[in-house]
Amino acid sequence: MSNTHFVNKNHFDPNKEESLTPEQERYYLATQWQLMWWKLKRHRLAMVSGGILAFMYFSVIIAELLAPYTLTSRNTDFIYAPPQELHIFHEGSFVGPFVYGLKYQLNMKTLKREYTENTGIIHPVRFFCSGDSYQFWGLFNSSFHIFCPAKNGMLFLLGTDRLGRDVLSRIVYGTRISLTVGLIGIIFSFLIGITIGGLAGYYGGWIDNLTQRTIEVIRSFPELPLWMALSASLPITWSPILIYFGITLILGMLDWTGLARAVRSKLLSLREEDFAQAAQLMGAKPRRVIARHLLPSFTSHLIASATLSIPSMILGETALSFLGLGLRPPITSWGVLLTEAQNINAVELYPWIMTPVIPVIIVVLAFNFFGDGLRDAADPYR
User: Fold this and answer.
1) pTM (2 d.p.)
2) Given a cut of 90, is residue 378 above it in pLDDT?
């Protein structure tokens, strides 16, 4: 039997320095946020949802430019006009985006305005044009719109309401209120949830017991009736701005319980880690240990929790405003717009007044999908 030794080419030689590939080196040196971003990019549905949310929140900034009409523009000759179909060709010839004129007659049996297209009248859609005047964020006057109706023409892509106001324009303006309610509400919720949950998780003992019993009492109440009761307690003499902040404060104060429990459970496990014990032995105060060492360890989970909490606040504001207990005119939100759909007879005759519910569904689904993607990306075991 030969004593020849066979050399394995893959044998590790401790005296030989092995180099990493650029991809491996990039991976090993990546920060937590870089790893989270790479995992999130593989979640296509979350990326699409994030793009939708980015566009929606960007539209909050330029609502006046996106809306073809101003918030209070009325077309009294076209009350409850149906959505107009957008055309490109007229009698086989390319014209560009346009809508046909409308003519109507009153049905004496149903007392309903019946509109029909007048194909003899063409209203081209203008782009980057001058239209209704407005004050941009209350800073300066302007009349610039990204798109607007033809001069002395009409453009009702989602129809009009009972006062002849363009539904699409009012939805665009309502986006500003409905989406910011969720953001401001989540700020209140985070401040309360992180503070109370952090104290309960770090100190434990009677503070933890008192916190848990308080959370259980709050969560035992049905959410919507509690919102309604607190909203109804707001003084009717308050200005629309005070009502707006009052509603956001109510939504934030009642949504902190789930976050507080999540923070508490995380801190209970992290406070015994070596890095936390080392900070305490070096004389760091509890506030510094929590803020500088413990909370950053699961910041990604907090962000994911935020994206999943905002939809509930948007739905809460929409429900309260729909029931007449939330925001009220002249403030315009998606919930305020849906108050016109309380009359089932109006919905049956003019179903397009229900269109404000479409952006609510889109935003809530986008937040849920994006939150799921963030949660998966933030999970170190995935």
Assistant:
1) 0.82
2) no
